[in-house]
Amino acid sequence: PYPYYAELRRAAPVSVIDPGEIWAISRYDDVVSVLKNPAVFSSQGLRAATEQPWAGYNPLTDSLVLLDPPRHTAIRSLVNHAFTLRVLPRVEPLARKVARAFAERASRGLEVDICDDLATTLPAQVIGNLLGLDDACDKFRTWSETIVAISPGTPEALRPSIVASIAELGQYLEEVFEDRRRARRDDLASDLLDAEIDGRRLDQAELMSFMFVLFVAGFETTTHLLVNSLRILAERPELLARLREAPSVIPHFVEEALRFDPSVHVTLRVATRDTEIAGVPLPAGAVVAALLASANRDETRYEHADRFDVDRDRKPSVAFGHGIHFCLGAPLARAETRIAFEELVPRVGAIHVTQEPTWNCGLTVRGVTSCRMRFEPL
Ligand code: HEM
Predict the structure, then answer these.
(1) Which domain holds residue 195?
(2) Residues of the chain with pLDDT under 70
(3) Which residues line ligand 1 (CB under 6 A)?
(4) What confidence score (pLDDT) does residue 18 get?
(5) Structurally, how many domains does the chain consist of?
(6) What atom in ligand 1 is closest to the CA of residue 215?
(7) Nearest to 213 by CA among 328, 126, 326
(8) What is the ipTM of this complex?
(9) How far is CA 310 from the centre of its chain?
(10) What CATH code is carried by the domain that includes residue 239?
(11) Measured on CA atoms in the order 81, 86, 92, 95, is the torsion positive or negative?
């Protein structure tokens, strides 16, 4: 899609994709100004997109991604607190253990579909452990791949599997909360049971929507970041050598991978009133597609934007969004990916993609679902 984004930025930075319905925003400054202004560009207005009659009750609809202030502010600060306390001390040892086990296998020479291996096992174990869902890790991939496909345009044939996944995950989460009500454990499910909002405990619908959104937002996005970063490294043997020499460059490598090929290409908003972007008028009700992946390649912000360069100026990208909905899991996703490469880079001699990867069909969460890779011993 990158040449297409470049063409949009050049010729039609605010362009109507679906006449009268969707406006695509492709330049960095415009994307940021949309995301900075939730009063005019609302997330709550998108609830209808997940409220599909065929899907039944969907806890995502009530989640913080689809809220505006002031409700968003209250919910976000609650989950910020619960999440941050847990994340930093917990992730490092667990992620390192999983990544090291993979790196040791890879160091002896290994060919695998990385999507069936490290790229799903690492985020699954980490998010499973944080949230308290460890015993269902093997189901995460099916649940998440199906649930993210929910939209007004979901083909009829895919609907039953979405409905089934929502029901299964919902039932599983109910059992988890039931269990933690009897006995708390050291996990986010237990923390949420004790958390308060406006001086009261969360009700069942709020508990469910928290867990749903953390799971859906936090799992597959990280898988794609891991795969994308590995593909970038496979194409650049000299970069692998550089990271081996200078492991302190790994965090910059991760940041540049997020800019260069982010897991989330687009996020949507709805105009709450007649407005304009870069001089182009938009009517109230217009759906605005903020093309994050395009903003990340905007030449006016990043010199040689199509070049992968770990040494470029450290300007933040919009891979994790911007403003009040800025990704809650950014420190977690960064830490997991950094740790994966800290373990892998010193142990493998070369990485090759041995089969053309298969892409999923999404733009919101975009990435490959299958990618065979060969790791050579050092
Ligand atoms: C929000 C990207 C990993 C939880 C977002 C947004 C983006 C994003 C672009 C903003 C959406 C918007 O403005 O509409 C990513 C990427 C990830 C990642 C690229 C990995 C590479 C995670 C993880 C978690 C997480 C690991 C948690 C476990 C969330 C939540 C929100 C969010 C809860 C909603 C925040 C809010 O509405 O206030 N993410 N994410 N994400 N992300 Fe992530």
Answers:
(1) 2-377
(2) 19-20, 152
(3) 43, 64-65, 76, 127, 213-214, 217-218, 221-222, 225, 262-264, 267, 292, 319-321, 325, 327-329, 332-333
(4) 73
(5) 1
(6) 28
(7) 328
(8) 0.98
(9) 21
(10) 1.10.630.10
(11) negative
